[in-house]
Structure formats: structure tokens, C-alpha cells
Amino acid sequence: MTTPREPPDGPEPARPSGAPGAGGHSDRGALLRAAGEQFAEMGYVDASLARILVRAGRATGAPEIPPLGKRELAEWVMDEAIDRKLGGFSSAVASAPDPLTAVISGVAAVVELSVRDPVVRGGNRLLDDPSISGEHAVRNYQLGERALDEGLAAAVAQGLLRSDLDHRELARSLTTSVVGHRLICHRTNTLDDLPARVSRMWQAMLPLIRA
Fold first, then answer.
1. pLDDT (tens digit per residue) in 107-117
2. d(CA 129, CA 136)
3. Please, what is the average pLDDT of the chain?
4. What confidence score (pLDDT) does residue 65 get?
5. Is residue 100 within 8 Å of residue 60, measured between CB atoms?
6. Which of 30, 70, 82, 118 is placed for a possible disulfide with 36 were both Cys, Cβ 3.0 to 4.6 Å?
7. Cα R_g (the chain), whole angstroms
8. Distance CA 9, CA 141 (A)
9. What is the spatial distance between Cα 35 and Cα 54, in angstroms, rounded to a whole number?
10. CA-CA distance, 148 to 92, in Å (whole number)?
């Protein structure tokens, strides 16, 4: 199963100018992590560019850091979060023995990143933030639904899921369910419970959809 890298209605949005390529890898990594942590904790509106730079261990205007504003940093974090989730999903899928296991393993990999990776945590909060343009959110959820749809379609074709299933609608429902669990965990400060919640979701759903 291949994981798509681009939505059907246009190319990926450009990354913030200079962000991935400016400065050393350690400087960029520290800035990206600091921005992810700040956005995850505070959201976009309350996040502070100055606190991000302090957390990254650099002063404003340091030559190793490109002159990014908070908006550009937010876009960088969202782009990186989407890429990391796609990469995690693809890696899990590649080692799975069959399409249904691939879908379950891929979702588990994305869930684990959503809990443990500070850049993905920050990116997820930004993607759900109404004060940020929905362009990145559209890309994020389109790619997620399409990756699930591919895996579920293959599972139906191999007789692992019921032949009368609408795999596209099931992919949308799965995406909605996982995102809903993540939002609840975020709002109730119980993000560590997300993997268990998603595991129970599968336990309830699989008996209904297996062949």
C-alpha cells in the first residue's frame, strides 16, 4: 500500500522560506522542537516567539536562525508534523503482513507520535486551531483519509473485511473517531490515554467489519 504525498486538488503548500535549510541541523532541530512544545502548550494565539527562541537556546536575531515570524514557525511545525505522521504510517505499513494489520499498525504509529513527539503534538494543536488557516488541516486530513482508504480497499479485496463495506466512508469514520479521541484527550489533559482509547475503538469496531 502506498501513502500519498499530495492532495488531489493541488500541490503541497510551500514551506516557510529558509526554515528547513538555514543554520545547522542542531539549530533547526532545537528551534522546531521548541516551537512544537510552545504551540502544544499554549496554542497559536498565546504562544510567544520570544519564549520559543529562549527555549531553543538562541537570542533573537542569532545568525543561525532564519528571520521567521510566529506564523511562519507555525506553518513549519504543521508541515513537519504532517510529514512525520505520514512517515510513521508508511513505516508501519511496510512491515505489516496484510492490509488490515497495516491499517491498524499505521494508525497506532500515528497515535504514538501524537503522544510522544513534541513537534507532532504542537502541529496537531495548530491544525485544530480556528485562528490558523485551514489549508494545512485540509491537507492533513485528506492525506490521512486517503491512506486509510487505500489500506481498507486492499483489505476488502483480499477478503479480510466485509465485501459490502464502503471503504471510503469507513476511512472517513475512522479518521473522525481517532481525531475525536485525540481532541478529548487534549481537552481533558489525558493524552497518555490516547493509545488505549484507540485500541478499544478497534476492539469495538473490528467484529463489525471483519469478513
1. 999 999 999 99
2. 11
3. 87
4. 52
5. no
6. 118
7. 18
8. 13
9. 10
10. 13
Record the pTM: 0.84
Report the 3 state secondary structure along the chain. CCCCCCCCCCCCCCCCCCCCCCCCHHHHHHHHHHHHHHHHHHHHHHCCHHHHHHHCCCCCCCCCCCCCCHHHHHHHHHHHHHHHHHHHHHHHHHCCCCHHHHHHHHHHHHHHHHHHCHHHHHHHHHHCCCCCCCHHHHHHHHHHHHHHHHHHHHHHHCCCECCCCCHHHHHHHHHHHHHHHHHHHHHCCCHHHHHHHHHHHHHHHHHHHEC
Judged by DSSP in three states, 104 sits in helix
86: amino acid identity, one letter: L
Cell of 65: 536562525
Using one digit for the tens of pLDDT, what is the confidence trace for 16-28? 444 544 444 567 8
Encode pLDDT of 72-116 as tens digits: 999 999 999 999 999 999 999 999 999 999 999 999 999 999 999
**CA 134, CA 115: separation in Å to the nearest integer?**
22
Among 27-41, 102-116, 127-141, top mean pLDDT goes to 102-116
Cell (9 digits) for 200: 478499544
Cell of 98: 496484510
Concatenated DSSP letters for 60-82? TT-TTS----HHHHHHHHHHHHH
